[in-house]
Amino acid sequence: MSRKILVVGRDHHPDGKETADEIYQGLLSTGKIQSGELQLIHYKNLLFDISKDKISIIDTSSGYNLADASAALMTNWFSHASVRKDIAHSLGLFWSSLQVPFFNTEALYNRSTSKLSQMVIAAQNSVNVPRTIFSLDFDQLITKCKEQLGLPYILKDANASRGKSNYLIKNHGAALKLKPQHTEAHPFMAQEFINADQTDYRVFVVNTKPRLIIKRVAGTGTHITNTSTGASAELLPVDALGPEIDDVVSKCAQLLHREVTGIDIIIDKSTDLSYFLEANPIPQIATGTYVEQKLAALAEVLSGAAGSRREET
Description:
Blueprint: E1 5-9, H1 20-30, E2 38-42, E3 46-50, E4 55-59, E5 64-65, E6 71-74, H2 82-98, E7 102-103, H3 115-124, E8 132-135, H4 138-148, E9 153-157, E10 166-169, H5 172-176, E11 188-192, E12 199-206, E13 209-217, E14 232-236, H6 243-255, E15 260-267, E16 274-280, H7 291-312
Parallel strand pairs: 1-2, 1-6, 6-7
Antiparallel strand pairs: 3-4, 3-8, 4-5, 8-11, 9-10, 9-11, 12-13, 12-15, 13-14, 15-16
C-alpha cells in the first residue's frame, strides 16, 4: 500500500479563515511531500457506513478509503456547524482504533454531539447498532441506502430529539422529497429498519446503572415511540430486560461519559436481538412520563454521592 497523507477539512470558511485547500497547496509547495502522497478530502464528501461488524469511511469524490491513510491532518472543524465537530470526533475515534497518526488528537476529547459518533463509539465497542449510513451529501446518502439498506429504512435528523424529523422510508422517491430539509444544522442519517412491533425501551440511567425502564409503544400509523409524539408508556421492573441488556446499557453510559442519561433500546421481534439507538443527554427527568420515579431515583443517588463525599472529608 502506497503512503498517503490526508488533509481533511472544508473548502470554504464563513469567517474567511484558511481552508484545507490552502493548507494542501502550501504543503505541496514545500517539496517535502510528493504530490502523489498528499490527498485533499472535504468533510462534505465523507460517507460513513457503521455496523458492529465493520466501520468504513469513504471519500465519495475520489473513492478513497480513509482506513488506508498513513497520516492525517484535520482542520477547521471547530466552529459554526456542530456536526463538523462530531465528524472530526468520529474520524479521530476511527483512526485511533487503526493506529493511524492524526492531528490534532483533541478531536478525541470532544463530547458526542450527534447520533453519528454515538453509533461509532458503540460499534467500536462491540455493541449492536442498526446499520447506519451518514453523509453531508444527501445524494450520496440516498444512493448508498439504495445499494445497501433495502426498504424500508429509517431516515432521521442526526441532531434531533423527541422524534423530530424521523421518517420511515418505504420508497426512495419519498426520501428524495426530504432533501430540502437536509442541512449541516440538521443532517439526515439513515438506519436499517428493525421490526420491533413499534416498541422500544427507554432506560433511565443514574450513575451508569439502570434505574427505571419505560416501555414505549408508538401510536397508530406511526413508527415513532417518543411519548412527546403520543406514544403510550408503561413502567416495567428495572430487571425486565435481563442482565445482558442491563450490561449494554451500563456500558454505553460509561463509554459516552453520561452517568445520567436515557438510553433507548430496540428489540427485533424475529431474532430477539437488541440494538442500541441512542443515549439522550437530556432524558426528560422533570418532565415527560413517570417523573416522580425518575426524580426519586436521581435524588437517591445524588444524596448517596454527597454522603460519601462528607465521609471522605
